[in-house]
Amino acid sequence: MILTLNDRVARFCATFFHIGDLPLAPGSAASAVALVLAFLVHPWPILYIALGVLVTIVGFMTAGQVETLIGKKDPGCIVIDEVAGIMISFLFLPMTWPVMLTGFFLFRAFDMFKIYPANKFEAMGGAHGIMLDDIMAGVYTNIVLQIAVRVVGIA
């Protein structure tokens, strides 16, 4: 199969610069890289939000196309959804080691266990199914971390 330039660019984006092509745990690897990225841009809230929105939009634009190219529902190489989810996970939170480590593992757990309505989103298929379950995992993670920071004081 010959890929067009558009297909190659979509795959490059959806695999988040080919991190999704790693042979072992590409979703966790992409989440870790996204956490570093979130940490680096955290001091500039407008940049943080803009980057999160950009990643999410690009994810919606490319994930379904790459899913169709590969011919498999939600293939593991598509990891831009993890990046979007991580950016949501740490929005408006202090980027301290306890928060980052807790958030990373919470996000991975929420992403794996697909708590309602994430499981319904995943069942949608296409770009929406790929992106929305991880966005929901990011929302769940952010809520838990907001409570942990404000009530328990883990920061």
Give the secondary structure arrangement, pairings included.
Elements: H1 5-14, H2 26-41, H3 45-70, H4 80-89, H5 97-113, H6 118-122, H7 126-152
Helix pairs in contact: 1-3, 2-4, 3-4, 3-7, 4-5, 4-7, 5-7
Please explain how this structure is put together.
This protein has 155 residues and is an all-alpha fold. It has one domain. Helices cover 72% and strands 0% of the residues. The protein is built from seven helices and no strands. It has helices at residues 5-14, 26-41, 45-70, 80-89, 97-113, 118-122, 126-152. α1 (5-14) crosses α3, α2 (26-41) packs across α4 (80-89) and α5 (97-113) crosses α7. The longest helix has 27 residues, at 126-152. The radius of gyration is 15 Å and the shape is globular. The model has no long low-confidence stretch (mean pLDDT 95).
What key phrases describe this protein's structure?
155 residues, mainly alpha, 7 helices
Summarize the entry for a quick read.
This protein is an all-alpha fold. 72% of the residues lie in helices and 0% in strands. The model has no long low-confidence stretch (mean pLDDT 95).
